[in-house]
Write a structure and sequence with these properties.
Layout lengths: L4 E4 L18 H12 L7 E3 L6 H4 L5 H12 L21 H21 L4 E4 L20 H12 L4 E5 L6 H6 L6 E8 L23 E6 L5 H19 L3 E5 L17 H18 L4 E4 L10 H13 L11 H11 L27 H13 L8
Helix pairs in contact: 1-9, 1-10, 4-5, 7-8, 7-11, 8-9
Length: 389
């Protein structure tokens, strides 16, 4: 392997725009790209624009009739077929929807191909991570499921074991569904409990089916979980499973909507804890996947304070040039933020937290809701994989 890292970027991905009233404002992507540039990370990795995913690639995950419905709505938004989840409040149809959704998917697929070929060790597509799209329908602001498509392409190229770790505040339901019966793919999702958040799935008991039984893992976190609990849950579940599975590629989804400022969810995670999990995923890739790591974005609706800083940290870690949390945000970027949004930008790359957590090996409290969650996940999955719960 060359050891180089790759950032997937095409300005056209900012055309993924559901309209001015929608929370998924594409300015979050543009501001992230500008912050990456302001820190000079362009010099530390290769910036690559890939072609849009073609129909044969989209069909690795999505049904032909669904692709046709997306194309039709893309050409005429007023004719969107809501039976496919298009033209809803969450997923309004817009002109060019198919083209830009396929473009985002193409970035993730091309990144997976580059990693598998050995051209790069790490690749980042922060415009990706659209993990709710199903084989036959749009959902949760997601049209095409680029994460699933990247994994499916890796399998097509010959990968025998791919692990997917999703730390978005919402359950990674679309990726889980795509590989529900496939033992070659281990899906792990840490998310807010389905009782309190969309998509109301991701219970500990959801563990896969058929040959894939035990290949789906869900940690359903209580609303209000903060840094110490989130990090405790991650380290109590993810490293042991990844070590056991020995993936050839690690794919991770880093939705920034776990943050305490995010308006759409109820966890209380800091930027500093998000960065620590990004670093942990990087380390897991090197320890157990020969360094092969595809990192994706996802949700995140605090579009100035959180998303750009979180995904710039992610890109810097992948580039081998991590940014110190206390680093000042470049002044040129703060001016860019104000010009685009009329909001004041954060001054530093930290929330000022130094998160610590109690390791699971130290024991658990049976009366604690978080520990109950972790134990439920371990009991549901670990014995199926020959591990002690």
């Amino acid at each position: 392997m060359s050891g180089r890292a790759q950032l997937m970027w095409d300005d056209a991905v900012t055309g993924y725009d559901f309209g001015p009233e929608h929370p998924m404002d594409p300015v979050r992507l543009a501001l992230t790209r500008k912050l990456i540039g302001a820190f000079g990370l362009d010099r530390e990795l290769e910036v690559v624009a890939a072609k849009a995913a073609g129909e044969s690639t989209l069909r690795l995950v999505h049904r032909e009739d669904y692709i046709a419905a997306v194309k039709a709505a893309s050409a005429d938004p007023d004719a969107a077929d809501v039976s496919y989840g298009i033209g809803t409040v969450d997923d309004p149809a817009f002109a060019g929807m198919h083209e830009v959704s396929a473009l985002i998917a193409g970035q993730s697929v091309a990144a997976a191909e580059a990693i598998w070929r050995g051209d790069v060790v790490h690749a980042v597509n922060f415009a990706g991570g659209l993990h709710h799209a199903m084989p036959g329908g749009a959902a949760g602001f997601c049209i095409y499921n680029d994460a699933s498509l990247a994994i499916a392409r890796l399998l097509e190229l010959g990968a025998e074991r791919v692990a997917y770790v999703d730390v978005d505040v919402h359950h990674g339901d679309g990726v889980q569904a795509a590989f529900w019966e496939d033992p070659r793919v281990l899906t792990i999702s840490l998310h807010e409990h389905p009782r309190t958040l969309f998509p109301q799935t991701g219970w500990a008991e959801e563990t896969g089916a058929g040959d894939g039984e035990g290949s789906a893992v869900n940690v359903a976190l209580p609303a209000g979980t903060s840094d110490a609990g989130w990090l405790r849950a991650f380290h109590a579940v993810v490293p042991e499973l990844i070590e056991d599975f020995r993936p050839q590629v690690l794919v991770t989804q880093h939705g920034a909507d776990t943050h305490f400022e995010d308006p759409l969810a109820h966890l209380a995670i800091s930027l500093d804890a998000q960065r620590m999990v990004q670093e942990a995923c990087h380390e897991l890739a090197h320890a157990h996947a020969d360094g092969r790591w595809l990192a994706l974005g996802g949700g995140g609706y605090a579009i100035v304070d959180v998303v750009p800083r979180s995904w710039t940290h992610l890109t810097a870690i992948a580039a081998g040039a991590p940014i110190e949390p206390g680093a000042e945000v470049p002044e040129e970027w703060r001016h860019e933020v104000f010009a685009r949004t009329r909001q004041l930008a954060p001054a530093r790359m930290t929330d000022g937290r130094t998160p610590k957590w109690l390791d699971w090996s130290a024991g658990y409290d049976p009366a604690d809701r978080l520990d109950q969650t972790i134990l439920a996940t371990r009991r549901a999955v670990f014995p199926q994989r020959g591990l002690l719960a």
